[in-house]
Amino acid sequence: MVEWLQANPIFYNKQMTSYKETGKKERMWTEKAAQLGKTVLMLKTWYSSMRTRYGRLKKNKSGDGDKEMTERDVWVIKNFDFLHPHIHEVQKKTLVSMKKKLAASDGLMSISGDELDENTDALSSTTTQSCAPSKRKARKETDDALLAGIEERGKNMMAFQQKMLEHLKPSSSDHERDAFVDWIRTVVNELEHNLWRRCQQDISSTLYRYIGENDKVKQQQSQVAIAQPIQFPHRPQFRPL
């Protein structure tokens, strides 16, 4: 999966013109899911969790060099480093957006640097001195709330990732059928309306025919099971001595 993702920057490089080709990306996801015997949802969720984990680890690594990483963390850093130039700016914008939302929820006003300078010049020195501690306190509360939210989100993502890893383990369910159904869904979504109507009729007719055949097979199996006599284990007859 890692090699496949790295070889297809269409999934993470927003500078590419093909990045917005959703249909093409969905077909690639479907083909890969069928190849691995997994569902498209499983592969997408795994990639999303690995991308998030990589971004968090890179941020922690640059901010806290003394924090020891697990063997799994080292593996993620090493294998997903190709994402670094594509998620750094996104994370920065997300952080700014979160700060704005938290500031708005606390009743803080969002003002530009020029407006702040103009308002500061208009205020007296006494007013500035009295407002400074209040602003610092509000900023600290905002930062604390932001960090708490990021930490909580990281914990939730780790728990979610663990669950997805469990789902990605090989199981006895029929993944080939799931992958085929996902492929049909992708193809149908790209059909023109008039073609979709014809396709719907053809698929429905085919499915109803196989449903009827399946019912006959089950009925025959049921009749054979009823017709077969129940055989009890042979017991030796008792003979008096």
From TrEMBL:
Comp. bias (Polar residues): 121-132
Annotated region described as Disordered, given as residue ranges: 119-140
Segments forming a coiled coil: none
GO biological process: regulation of transcription by RNA polymerase II
InterPro entries: MADF-dom, TF_Adf1
GO cellular component: nucleus; transcription regulator complex
Residue span, MADF domain: 1-88
Signal peptide positions on this chain: none
Protein name in UniProt: Uncharacterized protein LOC111121385
Organism: Crassostrea virginica (Eastern oyster)
